[in-house]
Amino acid sequence: MPSNLLALLPEIILTIFGVLVMLAEAMLPPKRSRKPLGWLAIFGAMFAGIAANVQLQHIHAVGVFTGFYGTVQVDTFSIFFHWLIAGIVIVVLLASLDYFEGPVTHAGEYYALALFGATGMMLMTCSVELLMVFIGLEISSISTYILAGFRKGQATASESSLKYFLLGSFATAFFLYGIALCFGATGSTHISTIAARIGTTSAPLLGILAVAMVLIGLGFKVSLAPFHVWTPDVYQGAPSPVVALMSTAPKAAAFAVLLRFLFNGTPALRPHWILLIEILAVLSMTIGNLGALLQQNVKRLLAYSSIAHAGYLLVAFTSFHEDAVSGALFYSVAYAAMNIGALLVLTQISGYEEQATTIDDFTGLALKRPGMSALLGFFLLSLIGIPFTGGFFGKFYAFSAAVHGGHVWLAIVGLANSGVACFYYLRLLAALYSRPLTDSRDYILSPRLTFPVAAALAFAGLATLILGVAPGRVLNMVQHATPGIIAAPAEQPAASSFPATPPATNR
User: Fold this and answer.
1) How far apart, in whole angstroms, are the C-alpha atoms of residue 259 and residue 349?
2) pLDDT at position 246, please?
3) Structurally, how many domains does the chain consist of?
4) pTM for this structure?
5) Which one of 116, 170, 273, 447 has the lowest number of neighbouring Cβ atoms within 10 Å?
6) Is it the case that residue 500 has pLDDT exceeding 80?
């Protein structure tokens, strides 16, 4: 197989299945069930994950390889995120099969947009050319802009989509400006060339400003404070499965780009960007947790929670050792599992109309849905960081990375913020097991738990549990994904290849 085709094989598969879903959608009668389209999209995501495994076997055979004139690099780092994104899409689509079954006649668009969005996210993680990263970012963003307003006819959905689009476009301008400044400082937008030239550039201030602009652009995508203002409103107005998708997969892709850009592209400027990382981490943890304390709406509470967790993950960036990248990768997996699980429980309880929105609506839920209440409670405990959950080890490795990097104070700030987070998570958990003042609502008894939803919840729950009691296998994966991302190559590459160990091959 040609290296160009193999380099983008998962993305090509996702695109083909997305087009097939759209074509099939147009041929189905309006009242026909769209579940077959959902299964088609799920198989597409599964085949994309298998394609990533084919890429891994090729790496074992010939080493890291590139495609399309060195703009795309396939290594263990990108494959790790390909698997993560594919897994997130599969779980979310499984939980969405019944969610869009009754009230929505255009559910096929949702499945296609989810695949197209995943295509952009995967492209971001394997691109080593900033312009290619931008293309992947836009493909992902356009899909999520539409998905955010998928509940047509509802004012909150329109507000969600419009606000996400306007602020996202604003953030994109910062990212593009950062790319332009990188070119001005180094004469290139290729990450390896930037790494070779950024330390000796005649315009060091231009390089520092470029890093700041890129951080701002990506900071919006991962909901870092103070670029978080869109998050609560978008999460509140978007459908719960869409929130589960956009709060995990795009963040993982954006953090992958940030890791590659900072650790592989601009290590010479670390004394400068490390200060920005510290400020953003403290602001995100503090504003996210304090904002969540004031929320009664559960989705807005989880939105502020996601801001805080982005800050926790960013804490790992303060170490320049391998445990920095390993800690960030492990936290990405743990956060994806527990956050998707919590949001899918909300999806199952509230339904498409989302009748249960505030903490008071969940009061006494354990009396009618003990299984769902226990599962939601487990995910909330993981979000806190209680031992024997994935959230505990995620925070442990992130804070350990900061300590090893000499940023003990930042780890202390993170632990203090974790203590603050206990108040609002436990407030929701206490509501689940409190006796309601009035009769329980009918929605607590429905909808019925179907096999796809049960499989999605089981996968999220088991992943969160395994990451908390036996994290060794995932740690081994992230450690294998780490080496190529720590430091920039010693030599400047040719225009059509990206040097790595093992040697790269390109056609």
Assistant:
1) 37
2) 92
3) 1
4) 0.91
5) 170
6) no
